[in-house]
Fold these 3 entries.
Entry 1:
Amino acid sequence: MNLFQKLKARPEAGILLALFGLGLFVSLLEPRFLSPTNFYLVSRQIAFTAIAALGVFFVILSAGIDLSLGSVAGLSGVCAGLAMAHGVAWPLASLLGLTTGALCGLVNGLIVARLRVTPFIVTLGTLSVARGLVLVLTQGEAVRAIPQGFIDFGNSDCLGLPLIVWVLLILAWAAWFLQRRTVFGLRVMAVGGNENAALLAGVPVARIKLWVYVVSGLCAAVSGVLFVARFQSAQAQAGFMLELDAIAAAVIGGASLMGGRGTVAGVLVGATIMGVLHNALVLLQVSAYWQELIIGSVIIVAAVLDAARTKKA
C-alpha cells in the first residue's frame, strides 16, 4: 500500500480534504489569508480551541459531554490572575489556575460517575456556577495587575511559532499516547463503545468517567491561564462559548457523540477548520450576527453528520 492509499484509508482523510478546500476557497476570496502574519494569528486562535477540544475529546470518547469547559477556562484564568495581582509568583499562580480547572473537572466527574446524574445536566449546571463564581470574584471587572514576566512568557515565540502552539503540540502527543498506548485510553473507548460490556469485562467504569472529566477540566484550565497572557488581563468573559467551538472541533474531526470513536489527529483538523472559519469570517468582514448564524449552522451540520456516521456504523 503506497502513501496515498494509506492517507486515503485514514478516518481523517475526508475532513482534511475539506480543510484544504476551505483554505483554497478563502484564499481566493481574500489574499490576506495566506500572509505569514495571518497564519501566525490564526495558529494561536486554533491552539486555544484545540487544547480545550483535546480535553473534551476524552469525555466524548466515554459517551459523555462537558458543557462547562468555557466557564472553567474563565474561572481558572481569573483565579490565576487574582493570585498574580496579590503578589503570588506567576508560576505558582498558573499552577493554582490549573488546579482550579482540575478540581472543577473532579466535581463534574464525581457527580456523573458516583451519583449517576446525566452529564448534560451536570455540566450545564457547572457552566452556570463557574461563570457565577467568576462574576463574584471580579465583580464583572477585568483583573489587570498581571506581571509583565508572565505576559512576555505567554506571548513568546519559539522557532517562529507562538508558545501556545508548542503547548498544543505537546498536549496533542500526550493525548495520542494516552488514547492509543495506555490501558486508560483503551478503557475510555470501551466505556464509550458499550458501558455494560465494559462493566462485565471488569473495567472500572465509574473511575474512568471521573478521570475523563478531570482531563477536560485541566485542558480547559491550560487555555484559560494562557488567555490571561494573551489579553494581558484576567477577563470575566474569557472562555465564553469556548465549549461550543471545542465540542464542534471534536465532532467535525470524527469523534462520535455516542462515544467509542475518534482520533486526536481528527480533533486537531476539526479545530483547524473552526479556526480557519472564524478567521475567514473576520477577514471577509462578515457581520457578527451572520457569524453566529454560520458557526451555529456548522455545529448543527457536524451533529447531523455524526448521527449519519453512527447509523452507518
Entry 2:
Amino acid sequence: MKNKLIFFLLPIVFFSSCSPLKSSARESKHQMELTLQEMRTNVDDLKHDIHCFKTEMEILEGKIKHHENTLCQLKQGYVEKQEERWEGMFKEMQEIKKKLAQVEQGRSNEIKDIKQLSSHANETTFSLTQFKDKIEELEKQFSLHSRKYDEMLKLKGTLETLSLNLQKEANDSPLVKIYKVRAGDSLEKIAKAHQTNSQYLKKINQLDKDLIQVGQEIKVPTK
C-alpha cells in the first residue's frame, strides 16, 4: 500500500515540476487528463486494498474472539476448581483452629498443628503448579487439534474429489457381459434383445461389418 501511495504522488510531483515553456496548452491539458486518470485508478486500487484489509481484520478479530472465548472457559473452570479447593482449605483451617484451641496448653501439640498447616499450604502450592501445567498442556492440545482439523478438512476434500472421479468413471463405463452367437442370430436381433442397437455392438466389439458366426462370443450390455 505504501508503494501505491508513492506511485500515486509521483505524477503530481512530476506534473508540478514541468515548465509551461516546454509544452503547449493542449499537451498540458492532455498530460493533466492522463495524470487525473492515473490518480483515479490509484485511488480505486487503494480503496480496494483498504476494503481487503478491513475484511482480513474482521476475520482475524473473529478468530481472536473465538480463542478468547475458549480461554475464558478454561479460566472459568480453573477458577471454579480453585474456589472448591479454597473452600476445602477453609474447612481444614477451621478444623486446625479448633485443634489449636484444644491443645493451647501443650506446646508440642501447637508445633504439630503448625507443621500440619504448613504441609497443607505446600500441597496447595504444588497443586496450583500442577493445574497451571495442565492448562498450558490443554492450550497446546487445542492448537494441535486445530491443525489436525485443518488437515482432516483437506483430506475430506481430496476423498470427495476421488469419489466423484470414481463415480464418473463408473457412469462412463457401462457393464457388459459375453453372449455366444446361436443359429439364426443376427447382430440386429441380438441388439434388440439387449435393448441397444447394432452400431453400439459393433463399437464395443470392434467389428467392421454386421457379419457374425455361430459360436462367436461378443460383448453385450447388461439390462
Entry 3:
Amino acid sequence: MRRVPPVILSVVFLDALLMFALVPLLPHYVHELGLSKSQAGAIIGVYSAATLLFSLPIGRIADRVGPRRITVTGVALLAVSTLVYAFAGSFWVLFAARGVQGVSSAISWTAGLAWLSAATPPEGRGSALGTAMTMGTLGAFLGPVLAGPVSRVLGPRDLFLALAAIAAGLTVWSLLPREAHAPPEQHAGLGETFRIALRSRLIACAVFVMTLVAVVSGLLETLVPLRLGVAGYSATQISLVLGLAGILAAATQTLVGRAYDRVGGLRVAYVSVASMAVMLAVIAIPRAALPIALVYIIGTPTISGQYAVAFPLATTGADQVGLPHGIVLGAINVCWGLGFFVGPALGAAIAQATSDRLTYALCAVLSAAALPALRALALERRECQEAA
C-alpha cells in the first residue's frame, strides 16, 4: 500500500494544476476561436458544473467496483481532455474537453481520495488527506503561474501536449498499486445511504464545515481581487496576493492534517471556524486595499484549516456507521460545489446592493452563529475526542 499515497498526491496535484492552467490562456482561445465573453465564461463554468453533477455517482460506482479502477479511468480522461486542448479548433470542442476535465476532477477528489483513505491506517488518515489538500493547493497555485510563461515560450499547443504526456505517464503509474477498500462496507440505495449517514455526527459536521467554508472562501476569492483591481492593482500584483495566500494555505493544510491525528478533527474545525469569524470581522474594518489584502493573506489558515479536516471527518464518520468512503466523499464534493457557487454569486449580489464591508460583516455573523450549531452537531463527548 505504500505506493498509493504518492500516486494519489500526484493525481490531485496535476488535476488542480490543469484546472487553473487554462485561466491565463483563455485570452488566447478567445482570440483564436473568436469566443464571446459568455462562451469564455461557459468554458470556465462547465468544469465546476461537471464536478458537481458527477461527484455522487462516481463515489457510488467507486464503492461498488473499487476506487482504484475509477481513479485510473479519471487520470486517463485527464490525459485525453488535455490532449484535446492542444488541438481544439472550436468553442464546442474546447467546451467538451473542459467538461471531461471536470468529470476527471470529480473522480480525483472522490474515488482518488477514497483510495488514499482506504490505503491509510485510521491513525494517519488526517495527515494523508491533509497532505492531499496541500498538493491540490500547490497545483492550483502553480497552474496559472507556470502556464502563462511556459506557453509564451512553447506555445499553448506544445504546453498542453507536454501536460497530456505527463497525465498519460501518471495513468500508467496509477495502474501499479493494488486496490484498497476501507472496511466495513455497506452498499445500499441512495436514500438508504443518506439515512445511514444521518446517524453519524462526524459526517454531519463534515458536511456543515465544507459548505460553510466553501461559501466564505468563494466569496473572499471574488470580492478581494475585485477590490484590488478597483484600487489599481495589476494582474501580476493580484496574482502575487493570491499566490502568497496559496502558499500559506498549503503549509497550513499539512500542519492541520497532523494536528487532526493528534487532537481530533472537530476541535480543529471549531477553532478554524471561530478564527474565520474573527478574520471576517477584521477584514470588514479597513477601506484601503492594502490592509484588506494583508488580512486576507494572514487569515488564509482559518480557511484552509476547515478544508483540511472536512475529508478525514467524513471518512471517519463513514467508518463509524459502516458506509464506504466513495459515496460520502462524493457528498462532500457536492457540498463544496454548491457552496462555491452560492458564495460568489450571493456575496457579489449583496456587495453590489450594499458594500463589501457589510458583506464581510454578515459573513462574520454567519460564521459566529455556526459555532453553536457545530457544537450541537458534536455533542457526544466520544466523537469530540475522536482523533482518527
